[in-house]
């Protein structure tokens, strides 16, 4: 039995009958020893065959020094490959990025923005396709690959982070010389509309029971509707209805010396306004010498603001305050200072008939990036002719109207009347169906514009809505844009609000600044005075007695507490 079991287990190493013969012949021990030897030999041969690597390899692998050499060689290989990839994809060292505190849409206020769910992927695809060179119609083809082609936003903050409110985000700007080189040599084509003129009427008559003003000419509802029918040649209401030319007997009048200057040709201007002494002039920063030499900065003020500036010796006979050239407005058309501010904001093309590009910033803003860089980033690089930032939180007109009412921005019944009128005209709440339109509500404190017929028509009709209804231009923006876009192939670059906050810094209005308490002066720490040792024997102290000692220590404790309080503040 045992022999049979042994034979079955080792049948591959020898035949069972051979083993049985050896037992019968009396040579069992010799045969068994031979079997053991042969089986051991065969097992060793099989084990040698099963080894995939030679013994020398195992010997080296067991060596600690050899393992370290392998790791070092692998690390060097990874480093070399990484350096190659970085050098291949790196951008130009001349790229300028102005980095702000990160509060990037779609994570506005620390929470996921509702609009970002609709717009996030769309913006991502837009950014990926943005830099297919050449990028500009009518522009000189740049002799270099665009340095900002690989620029991306950093990751958003985690959702558990504290809500921070709107903040600037990084923007990739070209150096000033390259931005200047990218300026188109000719004007963009204006779709359909080629010739735009303006209605003049010395005796405008109000024929309908709605808003409007003498300055705007009281266009009828039919005239309003006809102005949205885009044709090759058009004449529309666009303010300055009286007089021979804007600023001369029209209301919103200029001095003769200013009027002559405003007629001059400029490639680019920057403009702003302060009415009702409502804001404090903010001086632009980081402006290149080329821009200071070639780009005029105009600040429009009314007579009230002018008087305040003269009383404070801010304004002299040179009519200059820093970079700003002050232009005084006489015979303002409205009693509301904010509505007067809409005239230069939306009708710059009427005030400056010979300008190619303009950047408008509200009076409370400070420009901190060169105008050439701003235009390159938001117009020329995008192949756009009008750019405005979208609101950082709201993107629906109906929601914006309710927010205006809650904040007391305007009379509630007037806001309701305007929104109801737009509802009847077909305005609907913003939804994904409007894509690629990213918002119906702009943050309208910055306008970047090329002065061509279609953009001039847009701002004329936008102004007419502000003149007819409330002065809250955020409410009328979308209806004018959408009506024009249904007629012609034209669009507006609505960029992120955090990008706008990168190139302008917002200040408070004057009334809020005057209510703020003055800053606490810094505490100057002075070194303790050296003790006066004249007439005293060194090393000798006069001991205090009783009450004097106690009162002295009390005074010392009070003084020390007072010093600690001052250091805290």
Automatic annotation (TrEMBL):
<feature type="region of interest" description="Disordered">
    <location>
        <begin position="519"/>
        <end position="569"/>
    </location>
</feature>
<feature type="domain" description="TOD1/MUCI70 glycosyltransferase-like">
    <location>
        <begin position="196"/>
        <end position="509"/>
    </location>
</feature>
<keyword id="KW-0472">Membrane</keyword>
<keyword id="KW-0812">Transmembrane</keyword>
<dbReference type="Pfam" id="PF04765">
    <property type="entry name" value="TOD1_MUCI70"/>
</dbReference>
<feature type="compositionally biased region" description="Basic residues">
    <location>
        <begin position="537"/>
        <end position="559"/>
    </location>
</feature>
<feature type="transmembrane region" description="Helical">
    <location>
        <begin position="66"/>
        <end position="86"/>
    </location>
</feature>
<keyword id="KW-1133">Transmembrane helix</keyword>
<dbReference type="InterPro" id="IPR006852">
    <property type="entry name" value="TOD1_MUCI70"/>
</dbReference>
<dbReference type="InterPro" id="IPR048354">
    <property type="entry name" value="TOD1_MUCI70_glycTrfase_dom"/>
</dbReference>
<protein>
    <recommendedName>
        <fullName>TOD1/MUCI70 glycosyltransferase-like domain-containing protein</fullName>
    </recommendedName>
</protein>
């Amino acid at each position: 039995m045992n022999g049979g079991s042994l034979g079955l287990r080792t049948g591959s190493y020898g035949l069972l009958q051979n083993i049985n013969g050896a037992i019968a012949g009396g040579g069992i021990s010799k045969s068994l020893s031979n079997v053991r030897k042969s089986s051991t030999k065969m097992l060793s041969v099989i084990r040698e065959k099963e080894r995939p690597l030679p013994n020398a390899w195992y010997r080296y692998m067991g060596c600690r020094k050899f393992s370290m050499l392998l790791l070092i060689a692998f690390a060097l290989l990874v480093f070399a490959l990484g350096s190659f990839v970085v050098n291949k994809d790196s951008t130009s060292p001349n790229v300028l990025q102005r980095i702000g505190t990160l509060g990037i849409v779609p994570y506005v206020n620390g929470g996921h923005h509702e609009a970002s769910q609709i717009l996030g992927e769309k913006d991502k695809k837009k950014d990926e396709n943005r830099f297919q060179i050449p990028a500009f119609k009518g522009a000189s083809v740049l002799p270099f690959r665009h340095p900002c082609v690989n620029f991306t936003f950093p990751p958003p903050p985690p959702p558990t982070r504290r809500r921070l409110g709107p903040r600037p985000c990084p923007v990739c700007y070209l150096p000033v010389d390259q931005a200047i080189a990218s300026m188109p040599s000719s004007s963009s084509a204006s779709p359909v509309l080629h010739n735009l003129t303006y209605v003049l009427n010395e005796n405008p008559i109000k024929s309908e029971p709605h808003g409007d003003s003498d300055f705007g000419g009281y266009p009828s509802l039919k005239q309003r509707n006809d102005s949205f029918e885009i044709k090759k040649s058009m004449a529309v209401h666009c303010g300055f209805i009286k007089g021979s030319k804007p600023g001369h007997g029209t209301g919103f009048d200029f001095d003769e010396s200013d009027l002559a200057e405003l007629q001059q040709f400029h490639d680019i201007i920057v403009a702003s306004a302060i009415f009702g002494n409502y804001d404090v002039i903010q001086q632009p920063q980081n402006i290149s010498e080329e821009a200071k030499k070639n780009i005029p900065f105009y600040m429009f003020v009314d007579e009230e603001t002018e008087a305040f500036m003269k009383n404070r010796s801010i304004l002299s006979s040179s009519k200059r305050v820093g970079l700003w050239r002050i232009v005084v407005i006489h015979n303002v058309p409205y009693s509301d200072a904010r509505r007067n501010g809409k005239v230069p904001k939306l009708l710059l093309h009427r005030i400056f008939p010979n300008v190619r590009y303009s950047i408008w910033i509200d009076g409370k803003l400070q420009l901190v990036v060169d105008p050439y860089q701003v235009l390159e980033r938001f117009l020329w690089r995008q192949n756009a002719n009008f750019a405005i930032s979208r609101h950082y939180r709201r993107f629906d007109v109906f929601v914006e109207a309710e927010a205006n009412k809650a904040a007391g921005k305007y009379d509630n019944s007037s806001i309701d009347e305007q929104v109801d009128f737009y509802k009847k005209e077909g305005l609907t709440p913003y939804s994904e169906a409007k894509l690629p339109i990213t918002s119906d509500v702009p943050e309208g404190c910055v306008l970047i514009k090329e002065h061509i017929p279609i953009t001039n028509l847009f701002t004329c009709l936008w102004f007419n809505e502000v003149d007819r209804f409330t002065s809250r231009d955020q409410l009328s923006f979308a209806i004018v844009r959408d009506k024009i876009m249904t007629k012609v192939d034209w669009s507006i670059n609505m960029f992120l609000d955090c990008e706008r906050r990168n190139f302008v810094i917002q200040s408070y209005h004057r009334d809020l600044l005057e209510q703020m308490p003055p800053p606490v002066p810094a505490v100057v720490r002075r070194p303790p005075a050296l003790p006066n040792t004249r007439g005293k024997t060194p090393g000798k102290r006069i001991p205090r007695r009783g009450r004097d000692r106690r009162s002295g220590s009390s005074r010392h404790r009070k003084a020390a507490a007072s010093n600690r309080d001052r250091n805290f503040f």
